[in-house]
Amino acid sequence: HPSQGVSLQDTVTLRCHLPQPAAWVELYQDGLLRSYKDMDKHQVMAEFSLVCVKLEDAMKYWCQYRVLEPPGVSEKSVPIELVVTDHRYSPPNICISHEEIVEVGTNVTIQCCNQGYGGIIFLHKDGHSAPLQHQDPRGGGTATFTLFGVTPADSGTYRCSYHPKASLVVSSPLGDSVTLEVTPTPAPPGRYKALSACPQCRPWVAVSSHPFPMEVMLGMNTPKYLYPTGAELVSCGNLVVAVVRGCAAALIFGLGIFFVINARSFWIRRDESLGGEGI
Q1: What are 48-65's pLDDT values in tens digits?
Q2: Tell me: the pLDDT tens digits for 229-275?
Q3: What is the Rg, in whole angstroms, of the alpha carbon atoms belonging to the chain?
Q4: pTM for the full model?
Q5: Edge-to-edge strands of the sheet including 178-183?
Q6: Which of 52, 83, 172, 261 has the greatest number of beta carbons closer than 10 A?
Q7: Exposure of 34 by Cβ count < 10 A (0-12 exposed, 13-18 middle, 19+ buried)?
Q8: CB count, 10 Å around CB of 4?
């Protein structure tokens, strides 16, 4: 099954299709035997269920089967990668360079913003199990996908997701959608308008619900911020002001004590001097 949309705690079924009857089928997870199933001579498919999917289940899987007559082991099947959607990551933003209806042959640009998490950004089209394109912004937060010379087959709804840089087998949820309709005739007035930019994707900070990147701590209820929040910044500012005021007060107090002691010493020396002259 396509892994897009598999969330933590879901149940996933992996199916191994056999070209011939087998004695048993083995399911491997990243090279280690995960499970096996005895088969009868009429079965040509084996099903394995992953119940209550966890993050450690997000790996590569493949099948092998064994026959008894003559004894032998099959080649490994084509591996599939189970990518788990973690809803603790913010969904990406998306924008399109044209309005809903465009003419055949138009180049359409779609931008996706990964909210500053880094990693690979994917472009999806509803009705397709696999992503259409993917891109690694390499330090940036925005991927730009271009559909060259669109045709009516490109009509549909598009969304984005991303794999955070911290884990390439974990995916964000799918973000909001944009709709594209390709018409063989000129678009009706007012329905086609090329946009100069996608403002909601530039920069990602402007559209993020948090002004600083977040580090999601898997297994915890609350995220940990890589940088201080606004409340923490205000608290730090108040602390600095308090420290400055305290230092100023201590300095004034110290100067006052110095002048008092100095004045007292002056008067004592003056009294002693006057007393000496009287004798």
Answers
A1: 999 999 888 888 999 999
A2: 444 433 444 554 565 576 677 777 777 777 667 666 666 665 556 55
A3: 34
A4: 0.59
A5: 101-103, 178-183, 156-163, 120-125, 133-135
A6: 172
A7: middle
A8: 16
